[in-house]
Amino acid sequence: MPKILTIFGTRPEAIKMAPLVTALKRQPEYETVVAVSAQHREMLDQVLGLFHISPDYDLDIMRHGQSLTQVTSRVLNGLEEVIVKEQPDMILVHGDTTTTFVAALAGYYQQTAVGHVEAGLRTGNKYSPYPEEMNRRLAGALTDLHFAPTDEARDNLLAEGTAPDKIFVTGNTVIDALLTTVDKRFQFADPVLEELTASGKKFLLLTAHRRENWGKPMARIFRAVKRLADNHPEMAVVFPVHKNPRVRQLAHEILGGHAGVVLIEPLDYQPFANLMDRSQLVLTDSGGMQEEAPSLGKPVLVLRDTTERPEAVVAGTVRLVGTDEEKIFRQAEKVLTDPDEYAQMAQATNPYGDGQACKRIIQCLDYYFGLRSEQPMEFNYSGEIGKY
């Protein structure tokens, strides 16, 4: 019975790994062990509770004001003991967090196979996004099985010299999570959100938190959003404000007190996903929302200069607008005021998955461990299934 050790530490990882952990635990052929670093504590716990996951190991590394160096050293030290004790046949990591890179490194130090879920995303700029771009590249160099979400991600890995038979295109597990979470009947515990969504009033959903956007870039983003709120009194702006003090201070300085802007605390995943489903337009510097919102038919303006998810840009449902105040304002205005422009983005094909990524990853693991003789099946943009 192969033993699989899944390791994650932040809310985005937990959301995307939760359906895979759940699916693995249903497989009698595998022993599944879960370790969390708690690189994000509170936000991680919210997702664990939602998906009813109880970790076997919790490193609990989060400290106020922690640096990347501190996160790296604490995760590396904590995982060594876990891996030595459990002796897993494979470690599964996800995406591009510091926990992801360090878990792959810890596995390598113990000569343990590593499987990388959401492998192959690249911008080509090691400082954008920072530190995620190098986290995923370094993790990729240590990976034995690459679960690429799209053909483009596979092409990135091939260009780096990864062996073709070590790459499997599966779709993205975030779609698996999203499709089981969004519910048209969902009611919000927050009375402000419940009143807003029940009223049918249109609203724009904003998220902004990335390290490279702190300071002047984020100030430009917030000023553009304030102008949008001024221009559209018929529409609200809802902003779940990240807990980082630098983000919060700037958000309240520029957007606080505006009648058209609703500043709220960060939401658990379930209400957040349902809020996104009811929004009119999404403005974000998040990576995951570039995958989630298109699945819900929501146009997305990405508040970054680069993206490791170009598939949705090509498909037309996502646009890169950067952090220039005027460009953000004008692009948002265009989408909000031109019905044809809006429809073109909202109806674009989602290239990221069909809700079957976890099933495909388990097929890949079965094939790797000799539990099935047939080659795994791949995901492609049309949703059709075909052999490698």
From TrEMBL:
All residue ranges annotated as the UDP-N-acetylglucosamine 2-epimerase domain in the record: 23-365
Ranges that cross the membrane: none
GO molecular function terms noted in the UniProt entry: UDP-N-acetylglucosamine 2-epimerase activity
Record's keyword terms, sorted: Isomerase
Positions in coiled-coil regions: none
EC number: 5.1.3.14
Family, similarity comment: Belongs to the UDP-N-acetylglucosamine 2-epimerase family.
UniProt xrefs under PANTHER family: UDP-N-ACETYLGLUCOSAMINE 2-EPIMERASE
Protein's recorded name: UDP-N-acetylglucosamine 2-epimerase (non-hydrolyzing)
Gene source species: Metallumcola ferriviriculae
Lineage, highest ranks first: Bacteria, Bacillati, Bacillota, Clostridia, Neomoorellales
Gene that encodes it: wecB
